[in-house]
Every structure is written in C-alpha cells, then in structure tokens.
Design brief:
single chain, alpha/beta, six-stranded mixed β-sheet, two-stranded antiparallel sheet, about 20% strand, globular
Length: about 290
C-alpha cells in the first residue's frame, strides 16, 4: 500500500509543525506530516510545572550520549520527544531565537541573522511567546544580585545577544504549554490538504535511479507492515539526532562509515558530524 503527496514532512516537532502549517497555507498542494509518537493530550504535557516527569517516559526517545571526554567520560541523558509536538512537548518551554553570531557564521548559505529574524517574527505571530507575569519575588532579587555581580541586565534575549541576566520568553499560553503542534497544526488540522500521520516511524528515504529522493518508507511504531509514501519533496524535520540517522540509513553519509555498518553508500557526505550540545545544570536550593 502506498500514498502520494506533494510534500512529506518527517517529524512533527518544533520545525516540522511550523513547516507543515506554512506549506499547507497553499491549498493547491498536499502535505503529509509524519510523527513517530501519538497525541499530546496528557496532563504532564499541558501542565507547565510537570515537564520533568516526561523525561525518561514513553514520550521520550530515551537517548543517551556516548561517553564524553569533556565531562570525564560521563554518559548523558538526551531527552527527545516522541509525541506530537516533538521535543517542544517535553522541554522546559524556554523560547529563544539564538545567537546572532551563530547565524552569521552560516550566512554563506543564506542563514545570516538579518535573513532569519523576519522569519522568526512571522512565526511568533502564531506561537505568541511571552515573558510570564507574576514572577517569584526571589527571581526578581536574583536578577538584582546578578547585576551587582557584573552580569548586565538584558531586556530582550531574542535580539540576538544572549549575554547578561534577564527574563526569557516562554512558550506558555494561558497557563498551558503551547507546543509547536498546538500552535501551528491543531488550528488548521481540518484542512483537506494536510494529513497528520502519527504513531508512524520513517525507516528510510526512497531514492530513485536518478539519485533523487522520491518519498519515504514508513511503518507503525512498535512494528507492522512497511509502506511507501511518495512525494515531490521530502523535508527532514526529525531533529538533530534523527534527521542525520535517516540520511545515514538511506545511504547518505560518510562512505567509509556506512560500509563499516553494512550500508551501501549512495552519496558520500559528512552527515552526522560536529554535533554541539550544551549541558543542562540545575542549581537548586530550599527556600
């Protein structure tokens, strides 16, 4: 059994949901949004103060890092969401565009800060991130102390400058987590040109004899019959771990590595290298 769409978006996370919404704005094209997880309706997802209960649960892929030389060989938990909304359904809901210097380093590919800032602003009219009100008085005191310690106050981290102390915006709306699925897809889920395919794992890309990606092979999460989903274009939005994994499983990656694991190389590219992530360190006191 197979199906066909103009666009297949793999991964209903932070980027996949936004892209599926944008593509389906055009009623003349058909869009399929594929997600390995299911509904994002459990209480711990919608309640902002319970996100920590989701890490290591059945909506977390449960990834672990390889031993890291920079942290004395430690293995780190790497939470990634397996649910509609992806990791935006299990994260701490801090909204941050990123550092201008990082984007400017990619400017040769058209991803400089000035080029992407307008795209962020457009998305934010839908996502509506904001600074929360009714903050804990101790947080206010903490910011005063930070300034006294020499950390200048930063009134708007989304200006591209991440230095200093201040308030982050948050993806919380009306007291509930506003993940990417709720913000971008749920309001337009009844569009006839948008199909959400949940509980479905993409196994690999379909590559035709010309070397062009023409769809994906997918199967139900947990096992079942594989099927072909064909498309004019495939967009990988499966995150920093699974997008490279899908390319590698499809024969797109470092040829020597692919051969070592029994995959015939189709395109020799440095896929899956140079991932940089940050440590998450909580400093907790009883007050």
């Amino acid at each position: 059994m197979s199906a066909s769409y103009d666009y297949v978006v793999v991964g209903a996370g932070s980027s996949g949901c936004a892209l599926a919404r944008r593509l389906s704005d055009n009623p003349d094209v058909s869009v399929a949004l594929i997600e390995a997880g299911g509904a994002d309706d459990r209480h711990e997802i919608t309640s902002p103060i319970e996100y920590f209960k989701l890490w290591g649960s059945d909506v977390d892929w449960g990834y672990q890092s390889a031993p890291q030389p920079g942290t004395a060989g430690r293995v780190h938990q790497m939470p990634r969401g397996r649910v509609l909304g992806g990791t935006s359904s299990i994260n701490g809901m801090v909204y941050l565009r990123g550092a201008a210097d990082d984007f400017d380093a990619w400017a040769v590919a058209g991803w400089g800060w000035e080029a992407v800032r307008s795209a962020y602003e457009e998305m934010e009219t839908v996502l509506r991130p904001s600074v929360l009100s009714n903050n804990n008085p101790l947080s206010e005191v903490f910011l005063v102390a930070a300034e006294q310690a020499g950390l200048a106050y930063n009134a708007f981290f989304d200006s591209g400058n991440l230095d200093g102390s201040g308030w982050n915006r948050s993806s919380i709306l009306n007291g509930r987590r506003n993940n990417s699925f709720q913000a971008f897809v749920a309001p337009v889920a009844n569009r006839p040109n948008l199909t959400v395919i949940s509980e479905t794992v993409v196994e690999r890309l379909l590559i035709d004899p010309r070397g062009v990606v023409s769809g994906v092979v997918a199967s139900p999460f947990g096992g079942g019959t594989s099927r072909r989903i064909e498309s004019r274009e495939v967009v990988l939005c499966a995150g920093a771990f699974d997008s490279p994994r899908l390319l590698l499983q499809s024969g797109i990656g470092p040829a020597h590595h692919l051969r070592d694991v029994g995959i015939e190389p189709i395109v020799d590219l440095p896929v899956g290298e140079n991932l940089i992530d940050h440590l998450l360190i909580g400093v907790v006191y009883t007050s």
